[in-house]
Amino acid sequence: MNIDFSELTATPIAPDIVMPEGLAADVEYVFSVTYTDPDAMEVAEFSKAAAIAIEREGLSLGTYPPPLGHEGLRKFISKELKSNRGLDISPDNLFLSSGAGGACQTIVDAFIDAGDVVMMDEFCYHGSLNMFLRKGAIPVHVQMDNDGMDPDALEVEIKKKLSEGIKPKLIYTISVYHNPTGATLSLERRKRIVEISGRYGIPVVENESYADFRIDGPELPPAIMSLDETEGVMYISAFTKLLGCGLRLGFGAFPESARGPMQKIGFGASPSHLSSMVVHEYLKKNKDSYAHGVAQSLGAKRDALIRSLGEYFPPECSWTEPEGGMMVWVELPEGADTWAALDSAVEKGVKYNPGPVFRADRSGANRLRLTYSHNSPEDIEKGIAILADVFEEQGLFNS
Ligand SMILES: Cc1ncc(COP(=O)(O)O)c(C=O)c1O
Q1: Which of 174, 186, 205, 326 is buried most, with the most CB atoms less than 10 Å from its CB?
Q2: Distance between CA atoms of 324 and 333, rounded to whole angstroms?
Q3: 60-285 shares the fold of 20-43+289-394
Q4: Within 13 Å, how many C-alpha atoms sit on residue 106's CB side?
């Protein structure tokens, strides 16, 4: 008897999350994913680090890794967080994960129930948003601008929910070179968000996946977690964007009171111990010089994207000019539908993220996110010229 798995599908907690089909297409000019910058990767050096790590620690692959992950790498992360993000955290309060996405999923699995209200940025990276939606959470998008989430708006939304008898479960923010807008949460706002979190007893989860990618502009403000004295903040980041998305290596930092719930679910799916040992070996010798090279390469690509937008997009459009990270957020005239236009762009070999994928209510159709880490500066210009032609043909520039 043949078995039909489609008849066995588990009942989804949340309604299906609709995403544009074009995002899965294979095209020449990819502006829709924050891949590791291939022009800055040092494959030969990485391969040497792999050989050294395997010779030294390879026998440890015979057993299961510790629940929190590779100890040497956690010690390295602890030192880095102290010197780069002002965050004093013990290696015992760090867990390694399958990318930043894995750390986020672990937190969602440990703390989110169906029906929980989650405060999040006005636009939120679709991967995280979809994790909350799949668990049945109810996102409340909080207004933001170039300085990140607006604390006044956050407090208004929290009070609104409290007046309905609902206490939000947590505040989730991508606080550095935000995905999708590129904004960085200012120091003043970080302090206010910590204060609001403490006042209402709602924890904060900050995702700093892009902290290693400062191109220019001022130094980053310290991590929100470093400003908190109430043990009410959790932290997420990763090495995926820096060293290789395929390594699937990220991490989370948690306060002591979160240990129990996270331990219950084994700190999520732990990453490959082989990845961890190689990344540790490579980073302890090369982190600063490699990150510098990545920032330089990304700077040239960001500049090519901004230049090309200026050349090919009409003055009715506007876009952010981020000081780091991997993406530019574009606004087209009111009425433009970037979701509907994606298929035409894909036919011409270009893909991007339509604005509505970053909102639970699927609004924001006149926005789009363009990432610049993957293509060369020359290809960025070619791809943007094609995209401008498509938008012109489809009438998006004069909506
Ligand atoms: C803010 C943010 N969090 C998480 C992820 C997932 O990344 P990873 O490959 O580290 O799981 C991404 C990827 O784009 C991201 O931008």
Answers
A1: 174
A2: 26
A3: no
A4: 34
For 20-43+289-394, CATH gives 3.90.1150.10
Query: Could you tell me the distance, in angstroms and rounded to a whole number, from the CA of residue 95 to the centre of ligand 1?
Result: 16
pLDDT at 13 over 70: no
- Show the tokens assigned to 159: 């009070």
99 Cβ below 6 A of ligand 1:
yes
Is the domain covering 60-285 a CATH 3.40.640.10 domain?
yes
Residue 234 predicted with pLDDT over 80: yes
Ligand 1 centre and the CA of 69: distance in Å?
A: 19
Question: C-alpha angle 223/229/232, rounded to 5°?
Answer: 75
> Domain extents for the chain?
20-43+289-394, 60-285
CA of 36 to the centre of ligand 1 (A): 11
Q: pLDDT per residue over 312-352, tens digit each?
A: 999 999 999 999 999 999 999 999 999 999 999 999 999 99
Pocket lining: 128 vs ligand 1, CB cutoff 6 Å: yes
Q: What is the pTM of this model?
A: 0.95
**Distance of alpha carbon 330 from alpha carbon 369, whole angstroms:** 6
Question: What pLDDT, on the 0 to 100 scale, is given for residue 7?
Answer: 80
Rounded Cα distance between 34 and 40, Å, is: 14
Nearest atom (ligand 1) to Cα of 236 = 3
pLDDT greater than 70 at residue 115? yes
pLDDT at position 12 over 70? no
